[in-house]
Write a structure and sequence with these properties.
The complex is a heterodimer of chains A (about 160) and B (about 375). With about 160 residues, chain A is of the alpha+beta class. Chain A folds into two domains: about 80 residues, YaeB-like fold, CATH 3.30.2310; about 70 residues, no CATH class. In chain A, about 25% of the residues lie in helices and about 45% in strands. A nine-stranded mixed β-sheet of chain A has the order 1-5-4-3-2-6-7-8-9. The radius of gyration of chain A is 15 Å and the shape is globular. With about 375 residues, chain B is α/β, with parallel strands linked by helices. Helices cover about 50% and strands about 15% of the residues of chain B. In chain B, strands 1, 4, 5, 6, 7, 8, 9 and 10 form an eight-stranded mixed β-sheet that branches. In chain B, helix 9 packs across helix 10. Chain B is globular. Classes of the chains: A alpha+beta (about 160), B alpha/beta (about 375).
């Protein structure tokens, strides 16, 4: 079921700048809400969901609103590097995000990523119980975007 | 004569081949052979007929000299210029070069008593960008960007945060504090890390990105117990990398673990890894860190950089350098995310060229990809 969402002009501009549409973000939220595969940030009342859309792993950060079934999109981002699996968890490096399904605090760690047939590592956050993993916004839009460009350039 | 006039132009045919070789570990496409990086620094100045202090006091000359020697030796297609005592004048230290030494902290050190740690203020990004360290690095990078753009990579040099904190206090005193006043050490390490993070952000703001070089130098198994290395070094490097990446630095990371890491190397798996991370370990006890162990432990996390003993590079003979290079090269061919053969630390200034050439000969004969 398509979620109902709200977003500010600022967030709308951000989505545009990052090459994502409102519809893309709705799909991400749909997936996260249906499967309950999402992280939750209690102190800010925010959820983090993800979905592969085309060749982009898209993420949405969103919050419930006072109106039942309506979510406010806080941010969205994506990366082309394909996420494979968490290969190492740093159990002591506990994060503020927690797994919605497992109620476990996420930990940082190393996630294998694949791009242009090349497997390399990236820092991510993972639920230590179900291993659901996410790449945080700043890592995706800064580290991974530059990495994608460098891999494309070096491969050329 | 200006620095621009000192060296012939780069042979771009060489550069094209060297670039393909350099890129190969990161993109999973083997080129001809394993790359060699003996970490040439003031050695380049010496071979060009200059003094060590010329290298460190004239960053434009230093970075150009390394570029030139990298080409003549057939090493990396990128150049670099760095020294160890970084971001310390920003925290009150006075540094000075001598004829034979790079920038060294002068007495009296800025922290004489524990209260001085509380008084120490972390400069913000703008202040760091106007400071001594950033200005020196900017001179090197501005020169390279303008005159050697094909060899230019901006580098944020973190070095060893534990060693940097120790330089502010005095190494002996700081090691005593590690044992007797750990909270004080933590307070200082946080300030040192935050200053370096601001340096990384300033570098990324100016040049678009910044390869970060960091690791355990004084924080090694000879000086500290593994638990202390975790607490006083690894945790801070993780803190630094996370914040610096957030600020736009990276995505390249080079962990340089100098000295003996026989007791703590496993712990370095718990740092952050990006798609362009190199893990370089110098020694296991008194011996160079075995390449097969490096590949086994870190080959699935990063590109690995194996080592040839710096004493051997300095004193030879070339036959022994060749044999050790061969021994270290063979396991590197199986490194799943690529490999580089380097020196355990900076190539000694007085190392004879025959040592570097022996490494090259070994790479050409035993470091070829199948």
């Amino acid at each position: 079921m398509a979620q109902r969402v709200t977003l500010t002009k600022e967030v709308e501009d951000l989505l545009k700048a990052r090459g994502l549409s409102k519809e893309d973000v709705i799909k991400v939220i749909d997936d996260a809400e249906t499967a309950k595969k999402k992280f939750y940030l209690p102190k800010e009342d925010k959820y983090l969901g993800k979905k592969l859309i085309g060749n982009v792993m898209a993420y949405a950060i969103y919050s419930p609103t006072t109106e039942k079934g309506v979510f406010a999109i806080r941010s969205a981002y994506g990366h082309k590097i394909r996420m494979k699996e968490a290969v190492r968890l740093i159990m002591e490096d506990v994060q503020e995000w927690e797994c919605f399904a497992c109620k476990e605090k996420a930990v940082s760690g190393t996630i294998d990523m694949e791009y242009l047939g090349i497997t390399r590592a990236a820092p991510g956050i993972t639920c230590p119980k179900c291993k659901l993993s996410f790449i945080e916004e700043d890592i995706a839009i800064k580290t991974l975007v530059v990495a994608e460009t460098l891999l494309e350039k070096k491969r050329a | 004569m200006s620095v621009e006039e000192l060296f012939p132009k780069t042979d771009m045919a060489w550069h094209e081949k060297a670039t393909k070789r350099f890129a190969s570990p990161f993109v999973g496409v083997p080129y001809d052979r394993i790359d060699i990086d003996p970490i040439v620094l003031s050695h380049a100045a010496k071979l060009c007929g200059y003094e060590i202090r010329d290298f460190y006091e004239k960053p434009e000359f230093g970075i150009a000299a390394v570029a030139y020697m990298n080409e003549l030796y057939d090493l990396l297609p990128v150049t670099h210029w760095f020294y160890s005592n970084v971001w310390l004048p920003e925290l009150g230290a006075t540094v000075k070069c001598t004829k034979t030494l790079p920038w060294i902290v002068q007495e009296p050190r800025p922290i004489q008593k524990p209260e001085d740690v509380d008084k120490m203020r972390v400069p913000d990004v703008d202040e760091v960008a106007k400071g001594f360290t950033f200005s020196l690095y900017s001179r090197a990078y501005d020169y390279a960007k303008k005159n050697l753009p094909h060899m230019f990579v901006p580098i944020h040099y973190v070095f060893c945060l534990y060693a940097m904190a120790a330089e502010l206090v005095g190494p002996d005193q700081f090691i005593m504090w590690t044992i007797k006043q750990p909270k004080l050490c933590h307070k200082l390490l946080k300030k040192v890390a935050d200053t370096s993070i601001n340096g990384a952000i300033a570098m990324a703001n100016k040049y678009g990105f910044a390869l970060m070089i960091m690791g355990g130098v004084l924080a090694n198994s000879t000086v500290l117990r593994p638990q202390q290395i975790k607490e006083f070094a690894i945790d801070y490097h993780r803190y630094l990398v996370r914040k610096a990446l957030k600020g736009g630095a990276g995505p390249q990371l080079w962990y340089h673990l100098c000295g003996d890491h026989s007791g703590d190397y496993q712990l370095w798996k718990d740092v952050y890894y990006t798609p362009f991370t190199v893990m370089h370990i110098g020694y296991h006890g008194r011996e160079v860190f075995p390449a097969d162990l490096l590949v086994k432990e870190f080959g699935n996390l990063a590109t690995v950089m194996s080592s040839v003993d710096t004493k051997l590079l300095n004193f030879g003979p070339p036959s022994a350098v060749y044999e050790q290079s061969k021994k270290q090269l063979l396991p590197l061919k199986d490194a799943p995310r690529g490999a580089v053969l380097g020196a355990a630390c900076e190539l000694p200034t007085t190392a004879p060229p025959s040592s570097v050439l022996a490494m090259l000969k070994a790479a050409k004969e035993h470091g070829k990809y199948a």
